[in-house]
Amino acid sequence: MSLKLSKNRVNFLTKLIVDHIEKSDEIDYSEDLGNIRFKIYHFIMDELKMFEDIEIQARDKIISQKKNIPEGSRDWEILFRKYTGEQLDKLGKLWD
User: Fold this and answer.
1) Disulfide: which of 6, 13, 37, 94 matches 18 by Cβ 3.0-4.6 Å?
2) How many domains, in total, are found in the chain?
3) Residue 66 domain flag
4) By residue range, what is the domain housing residue 54?
5) How many CB atoms lie within 10 A of CB 52?
């Protein structure tokens, strides 16, 4: 599930999004494009941090099990998907 993007990659993505907004006749905006790009950047970074935190919680939950479950094993993968899925469901987020 791990989704890691560098700050440079996020900057690149925000530039693509803002360029699309600027060229689109279907999108109206009243705010400065620099501010829009800034907000998109922080939204993406916040979402990535949230996913990272959920992954850490799932790993901690698996490690705390009485039975030793080696990372990368089938059981570990099943539990990891289950625990991350539960957290994402609570937040109303989708991930697959």
Assistant:
1) 37
2) 1
3) yes
4) 7-91
5) 13
Q: What is the pLDDT of residues 6-37, one digit of tens each?
A: 999 999 999 999 999 999 999 998 999 999 99
Between 33-63 and 7-23, two packed helices, what is the crossing angle to 10 degrees? 140
64, two tokens? 């705390």
Within 1-96, where are the H helices? Answer: 7-23, 33-63, 74-91
Residue 1 in domain: no
What tens digit of pLDDT does each residue of 37-76 get?
A: 999 999 999 999 999 999 999 999 999 999 999 999 999 9
What phi-psi label fits residue 51: left (phi over 0), alpha (psi between -120 and 50 degrees) or beta? alpha
Q: Tell me how far apart the alpha carbons of residues 42 and 95 are, in angstroms, rounded to a whole number.
A: 20
Is 96 inside any structural domain? no
